[in-house]
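Supplementary material to the annual report.
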Amino acid sequence: MANHSQFGFQDASSPIMEELMQFHDHALMVALAICSLVLYLLALMLTEKLSSSTVDAQEIELVWTILPAAVLIMLALPSLRILYMMDEVNEPDLTLKAIGHQWYWSYEYTDFKDLTFDSYMIPTSDLPLGHFRLLEVDHRVIVPTESKVRVIVTADDVLHSWAVPSLGVKTDAIPGRLNQTSFLASRPGVYYGQCSEICGANHSFMPIVVESTPLANFENWSSLLPS
Amino acid sequence: MAGEGDSEPGKSFKLLGFLDVKNVPCARESVLYGSLGSLVMGLGHFLATSRVRRSYDVAVGGFICTMLGYWFYCRFNLAQQRIRQRMLQEGMKNRILYEGSYLDPEKEQIGSERSDS
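Predicted assembly:
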């Protein structure tokens, strides 16, 4: 989860999120280069005498055509690479349905057994000591570690959005539509997210908690859960 | 001793308020090499031509080109290193998993060496 006053990304827990963080660093470096140039040009304009003696602007025209093209190429190529990586079609090990309601999430594991449960936020008054306020839920989403998980997201009433920042996942939940996303949790852990589309009074109080656990523990959990 | 000579974890130094040069890999070196390149190229141009304004332009251009050039080089090497780390991790995991079993490649190798001798 994010610490208080955290401004940057949370630690990546999936390969896609690692790639996204690297691309973000690259984009910021390009932004630094552009800002340096702009600051220099600004300083130049402020110190230069105003004159209208320019008759031929071939060189500057060439520069301000080629430079933006180069910047776009530097940003577009890695961006498209990650975009296509995110859309790769692969055989998921597990399919999970996430359905948004006002104001809770319900999950369905229907691959091998009809497992369905609702996931409500634990109110602050009932929160055990040391747990995270407005982030904990009564039933977490359990997924096996290092397994490709496909999540099909939809909603029952209004727009919601299923988001887990450390896994690099955010997918809109739209009534009447099935949106698909996938992730791979690289390591065991508990990953928190919150509804990311305004959906009414308790929009801020329907969190998502994904718990990644080794496969043996996942099988144990799924066998214990009543269908 | 832990912490000697190391900066505190989580502290950041953001250039122009957004680029964290302490925590982003390759960022610090890129900016430093860029600054060095800028100094060398700007000063060199001035010494060669004695044109102040153009030397400033060359210095800024040198900063941007050197910084981005080293950035691409460093990030490429970092990506290669990450791939090697992943392969190593996978290899170590597989070695532990398959050691002694019929899938152990070392067992096959020893077997073929014995049959050769």
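The helical segments of chain A are 15-47, 58-86, 215-224.
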